[in-house]
Amino acid sequence: MTSLNAKPTIFINPAKCIGCKHCEIACAVEHSQSKDLFSAIFEEPLPLPRIHILPMGAYNVPMNCRHCNDAPCVEVCPTGALYHDDDGAVMITPEKCIGCKMCAIVCPFGIPEFDALNGVMFKCDMCPDRRAEGRPPACVEACKTGALQFGTIDEIVANVRKETAEKIIKLKEGEYEEEYNGWDLFRSMNAEIIRINEGESK
Amino acid sequence: MKKYKEVSIDSTTQQMYERAQELGIETVWERLEKQQPQCGYGLLGVCCRNCMMGPCRINPFGGEPRRGVCGADADTIVARNLLRMIAAGAAAHSDHGRHVALTLLIAAEMAEKFKKEGKPVLELDNMASSTLPYRVKDVEKLKAVAKKLGIEIEGKTIRELAKEVAEIALRDFGKQDEEALSFLKAYLNPKTYEIFEKAPEKAGMPWFENGILPRGIDREIVESLHRTHMGTDHDPVSILLHGLKTSLGDAWGGSLIATELQDILFGTPQVIKAEANLGVLKEDYVNIVVHGHEPVLSEKIVEAAQDPELIELAQKLGAKGINVVGMCCTGLEVLMRHGIPIAGNFLQQEMAIVTGAVEAMVVDVQCIMPATVDVARCFHTKIIDTSPIATFPGAIHIKFDERRADEIAKEIVKTAVENFPNRSKKRVEIPKEKMSGYVGFSVEAILKHFGGSLKPIEEAIVEGKIKGVAGLVGCNNPKIKQDHNHIKIANELMKRDVLLIGTGCWATAAMKHGIFLPEYADTDNVGPGLREFAKEWGIPPAINMGSCVDCTRMLVLADLIARDIGVPISALPVVGSAPEAMTEKAVSIGTYFVASGITTHLGIVPPVLGSPAVVKILTHDLYDIVGAAFIVEPDPYKAAKLMYEHIMKKRKELGI
Hints:
The complex is a heterodimer. Chain A is built from 8 helices and 8 strands, in the order βααββαββαββααβαα. Chain A is an alpha+beta fold. Chain A has 2 domains: 4-151, Alpha-Beta Plaits, CATH 3.30.70.20; 158-198, no CATH class. In chain A, the strands form 4 sheets. Chain A has a two-stranded antiparallel sheet with strand order 1-8. A two-stranded antiparallel ribbon of chain A has the order 2-3. In chain A, strands 4-5 form a two-stranded antiparallel ribbon. The radius of gyration of chain A is 20 Å and the shape is globular. Chain B has 3 domains: 89-266, Substrate Binding Domain Of Dnak, Chain:A, Domain 2 (Up-down Bundle), CATH 1.20.1270; 278-427, Rossmann fold (3-Layer(aba) Sandwich), CATH 3.40.50.2030; 437-654, Rossmann fold. Chain B is built from 27 helices and 16 strands. In chain B, strand 14, helix 25 (584-595) and strand 15 (599-602) form a beta-alpha-beta unit. In chain B, helix 11 runs antiparallel to helix 12 (236-266), helix 12 (236-266) packs across helix 25 and helix 13 crosses helix 15. The longest helix of chain B is centred in the first third of the chain and has 43 residues, at 74-116. Chain B is globular, with a radius of gyration of 24 Å. The interface between A and B is medium-sized, with 29 and 36 residues.
């Protein structure tokens, strides 16, 4: 097993999620038999996504497996169907799964879902085939806004540190300019509409 | 599921929405919720599906991808998408106009044919014969329109004039020369015309043929599709300039032809009192809802519903009679001309069916949700589609043919009447609420009311008794609580002594809330100046000018005021607003208001925010190009304030 810090995972940033749901489609295609969109939509059973975009007022939140280090689902699984693989991804062995749903009960993120057709649980597996080829998971590749990022915790926080440091210097030098951001503008207007619809404005 | 109070401020909608929930009927609000989250690329306008290298989208956060496969950036993509919306909106209005022009032509040609067959000559020459499916109801208007178009009137019969007017109208659709539309030239004041001529020059694009003056209604729409085809026009400025041009072909062409020729065929509206809201449905009657936009059909349904044989049939089947009511703009057309009650605006189409008291919803074109068929399945209601270009799966298809108008209208009404015994009386629940109001304010009716000229309005503006005029238009959108922004903006403007004129679903909203009653001027929602003016002239503080194609009535009114003062329309203390915009038609209307010189507010964010360049052109640069621009503001209070400030700025510029 690699060190905990070196394990890659999928990071989410709701501020950048514009709700296009491309990640959901890419995930379903990746978990189809054909791995091809135009064929996948005709498959039986239809492939299902393991990531979900939740509209939360003016924000959209991508919800997928956090692949916890101390994963309650792995702890509670009575048959050992759930386990960490070498990359630290939480995986399911369907053959061992008895569909008791204990993993779903203990998951604080509501991630494991029940596949009624096969009577087993399914969840994000961080795309093992892609990882083997050194490619990012399907959802991350599909996300063009940076709402989903794939990397190690060290890489992610290092990037945030760097961006913020740059901003601090620019602010100090008086060079910092808030960039035009159509989505934030839209979201602020949308927040206003939500406020109006939920009650009286002003 | 939403709480009923979140979906509408209209109590009839609230009641019927609650009922739909009880019965497990899915409505527009559930469908909107199931669509959440809606795709941000689409919301921002940065999704391009114009070729098969794509679909492409641009990262709105500034990172990659910054360009589509062809290299188009966000500015190009957003501008192209907006132009396509304008073109579709202009197409819908204009095709409606074409249909009316063709109807007039067909009627005139039938009169000619019957004349040759030796039928009564005088009646046919006067286009008054009952053998014709459509007659000329307003001879004076026909003559006035003919005169404006430069047609020699002396010595010609009504039939000949009707034919000539219809032919000029139809030529405006398909002519290939570089001249501006005949209707535009006949109706537009020279100073605004000059602005249209010079607009592209001001925008740094002098190569535009004949400025932004539309040459052919169809041509500008086709050119919009051409420009937005892969690899053609990429500069957001030239793309949007053509957008202005296309929308002007709608305003001073397609829509204007629709309004004017409908007045000729069905009569120019005159002031009349009528009722609005779901309470106009009657428990003991056969209820027919005419829904859509074209009065060419609904006029005939209204006539057929008065047929003694059909009324007798209704009575034989246990009903007291036949009750025709309107919905959306077709409803406004028959409301304006005959005082036929209007059951509601866009978001009430499903609600009307949920009353369980509708025998038939007769639909033509535009703004009809295919979901009406699904809701109707839960009751005995029949959805009857009538337009050869609008077919609804699961509906009954009784397609319309102008030549056999009366016969088909009777068949439709008969189908509705025969459905009455299928109504389950236990399941009928009609909300009680309805409101009355004065409608029918065509430009002609306004002139008549004010003693032949607009002087009283102009003087009141100069005096400051009324600060200016706001034209409120169109649509409901389930993203906004139904009618909330319509009414709030109206009240906030009236409080500031702004006279309101309006059309479309705004007008229906205003009527339902009592704004078209003269007594509304006594409420706190109307300022002292406007109150005094309304009382002095015996008018409500807001004026219903008709359906959404009738936005041209507002333009013609603005044009007349501009002529009187000797300024372009853009100099007037006039603003527009689409508080709950929804359709592509609303995009075209907003654009032609702005292009014609009327700064216009949108209460829904149009899909343009993905391009800062396009946003700047629409909300800023257009002031220098055509003298007006867009204001985008979802909060109705802030919006009314911005609109009022614009009016005050215009007053200052005029020195009043």
